[in-house]
Amino acid sequence: MPLSCQFGYCWIVVFWEYITVNDVLLRMSNIIKRFPGVLALDSAQLEVKAGEVHALLGENGAGKSTLIKVLGGIYRPESGEIEIAGKKVVIGNIHDARLNGVSIIHQELMTIPEMTIADNIFLGRLTTKKGFLDDKAMVKKAQQLLDEAGLELDANDKLGSLSIANQQMIEILRAISFGARIIVMDEPTSSLTDKEVEVLFQAIRKLKATGIGIIYISHRMSELYEISDRITVMRDGKYIGTVDTATSDRSQLISMMVGRELSSFYTKTPYVPDRKILEVEHLSDGKTVRDVSFDVCKGEILGFAGLIGAGRSETMKCLFGLSKRKSGKVLLDGKEITTKNPKSAMQQGIGLVPENRKAEGMYPQRDISFNTSIEMLPYFIKGIHVNKKKELEIVEKYTTKMRVKTPSLSQLISKLSGGNQQKVIISRWLATNPKVLILDEPTRGIDVGAKSEIYAIINELAKEGMSIVFISSELPELINMCDRIVVMNQGKVAGVLDGNFTQEAIMRLATKDIK
Ligand code: ADP
Ligand code: MG
Known about the structure:
Elements: E1 24-35, E2 38-49, E3 53-57, H1 64-71, E4 79-84, E5 87-89, H2 94-99, E6 102-105, H3 117-121, E7 128-129, E8 132-133, H4 135-148, H5 164-177, E9 182-186, H6 194-209, E10 213-217, H7 221-227, E11 230-235, E12 238-244, H8 250-258, E13 276-284, E14 292-297, E15 301-305, H9 312-319, E16 327-332, E17 335-336, H10 342-347, E18 350-353, H11 357-361, H12 368-373, H13 377-380, E19 381-382, E20 385-386, H14 388-401, H15 418-430, E21 436-440, H16 448-463, E22 467-471, H17 475-481, E23 484-489, E24 492-498, H18 503-511
Parallel strand pairs: 3-10, 3-11, 6-9, 9-10, 15-22, 15-23, 18-21, 21-22
Antiparallel strand pairs: 1-2, 1-4, 4-5, 7-8, 11-12, 13-14, 13-16, 16-17, 19-20, 23-24
Helix pairs in contact: 14-15
This protein binds adenosine-5'-diphosphate and magnesium ion (MG).
């Protein structure tokens, strides 16, 4: 063709002779890859066109990363074929991948924060003039790339001084400067703000326009709808199918991912009215939480909806003794309780699974057993001895109840998938035998299969008589799982919905003007 790349310079164009937008750029077929005991790729396939954003979707363990690593020359498959621009290629190592124009932007950034932007872009192939490093030319080229990408940055800036989003952009520029024609992004938005995601998407659209094929891996369905042209779904290492994003629907995609119909996605038993268990009256923390009142009945699932910053998490932290209560009353089973700190809240029968399990809940360097029993540990200690038998009994009981999938309870929690980590943290609170369990965004960042399981478990707990407070930013899960929904707005209760929930009704309360 050749395409003129908006970002690049002439030597990028070398690869582009034989391919135009919409031609097949990459075809992987019959890829088989085994790890000890696992068939990670079972005849997997993928086809990407030039100028296309192709999303790869599948639950944890579906084989997405392995497929990408085969493409990137990190793993050698047992069998299978890779064609790039109509030519059969063998990608035996990272170098081969690069020569064939494949560039992978990994989840963990691979750049070096102490070096400058220019150094990072040209990392591993510093330009030389008569055998010396030609710093000037390098900086000039780097600056040109930055300017063309519309990034207001100086090529001499240290990479470490940039936001994660900008560091990621530098990785993209690095890929472009290598002459990449297939760029893979593995969960690129997991640590970006909404605004940064928009900037990334703009960059992706520019790349598309130059005929680069982009493989985009993400859990976030709404993002796939915004940015991708086609979606390939994988399950258990197998190719399930490829759909055009524009004509596909979410429930179809979810059934493809989990291998069953969506009707069984939410489990909810009709609620039988019972007595009030928790009553919160005029709770304020003097800052975000303003005069909040609500109640929860025995066996009820009470949802909390609201925009980010509406004060839902703060309300629960105040109630749980993690932040100071300025005024207000809390009654449990009709008796007033003081919750000076989490320990007293716990002893009185309240449990809280925090929003950010990585920062607030998990002990990543410890095993499942420790992570489950930590709150109960003081009760297993007699003198200087821990009653190991009792501890194990409790750990086994609750990890089984929560269906934690692991070969052993001495597995490090950080080795588990997000869904299983969350189940361990919930097990910990179940072990304290609470009357009221507060779950703050319990399904955030976990795949759909694990979500569905967590819904089933929440339903089961409520059926057994536990009261659940369920904070979520995903309206469909609140609507399908809750008996009533409290909508918060600017630190106050904007309204309580009792059945017949609609997204519109919730959003109206969440966004109305509040005095
Ligand atoms: P995804 O990226 O879709 O979550 P992966 O490609 O990481 O899935 O994993 C696919 C399967 O291969 C899983 O069962 C996983 O446990 C296994 N697996 C991945 N990498 C390795 C490895 N280096 N050693 C052993 N097993 C692995
Ligand atoms: Mg992966």
